[in-house]
Amino acid sequence: MSKMATARTAVEVCGEAIQLFGGYGYMQAYEVERFARDPKITELSEGTREIQKNTIASALLGKLQ
């Protein structure tokens, strides 16, 4: 759950940083480009957001039964 929350927060923060930098945010000359790319990979490393939600729900429901 914490991985999903932190990855989502990192993607949102980097999206805001790219908005602040404008077109420069997509250029490799600026570190913002890498900072925006890396969290997206982290977010997808163990499946999409929907798969992670299903895994979390299954674990919680399994513990409740």
Describe the protein.
The protein has 65 residues and is mainly alpha-helical. It has one domain (2-64): Butyryl-CoA Dehydrogenase, subunit A, domain 3 (Up-down Bundle), CATH 1.20.140. Helix content is 77%, strand content 0%. The protein is built from 3 helices and no strands. It has helices at 2-21, 31-44, 49-64. The chain is elongated, with a radius of gyration of 15 Å.
Short description:
The chain contains three helices and no strands.
Q: What count of structural domains?
A: 1
Q: Would you report the number of β strands?
A: 0
Mean pLDDT: 82
Order of helices and strands: HHH
Shape: elongated
CATH architecture: Up-down Bundle
CATH superfamily: Butyryl-CoA Dehydrogenase, subunit A, domain 3
Portion of residues in beta strands equals under 5%
Main β-sheet, in a few words? none
**Roughly what percent helix?**
over 70%
Residue runs with pLDDT of under 50 for 5 or more positions:
none
Helices, by number, come to 3
CATH fold-level topology: Butyryl-CoA Dehydrogenase, subunit A, domain 3
Structural class based on helices, strands and sheet pairing: mainly alpha
Span between N and C termini? 20 Å
CATH domain class name: Mainly Alpha
Radius of gyration: 15 Å
Question: Notable features of this structure?
Answer:
mainly alpha; 65 residues; Butyryl-CoA Dehydrogenase, subunit A, domain 3
Element layout with pairings:
Layout: H1 2-21, H2 31-44, H3 49-64
Helix pairs in contact: 1-2
